[in-house]
Specification:
This protein is mainly alpha-helical. Helix content is about 65%, strand content about 5%. It is extended.
Length: about 110
């Protein structure tokens, strides 16, 4: 009697997938580090240049703002970049990331 079942390849005979590894870390780890590096470089380049741009009161095309305006801009920048994520992170932990993402997409679409 013939066996009609199809033969499944043995798991031990499969070749392991080759992935990029450097110093014991895979390619995903290094890609995340490169993305984070570019993000930090962009932020650390923008921070001093923004202050110079804001304070160009005598230049044509400048914003013509005062030091007080610059202080308020940097205050709100700090609030939304540093303090706001602490609060919203707690909300995301409480209600789950799916509900939080759904809410944030709805708010973005409204805007």
């Amino acid at each position: 009697m013939a066996d009609n079942t199809s033969k499944q390849p043995d798991a031990s005979s499969e070749q392991p997938q080759k992935s990029f590894r450097l110093l014991g870390f895979n390619g995903t780890y290094w890609m995340c580090n490169v993305i984070e590096m570019w993000e930090r470089l962009a932020y650390n380049t923008l921070r001093p240049v923004a202050a110079i741009y804001v304070m160009q009161a005598d230049e044509p095309g400048g914003l013509h703002l005062t030091a007080e305006h610059k202080g308020w801009i940097f205050l709100w920048w700090f609030v939304f970049q540093s303090l706001f994520p602490m609060v919203t992170g707690g909300i995301a932990d409480r209600y789950g990331y799916r509900k939080t993402i759904l809410f944030s997409v709805a708010v973005n679409m409204t805007g």
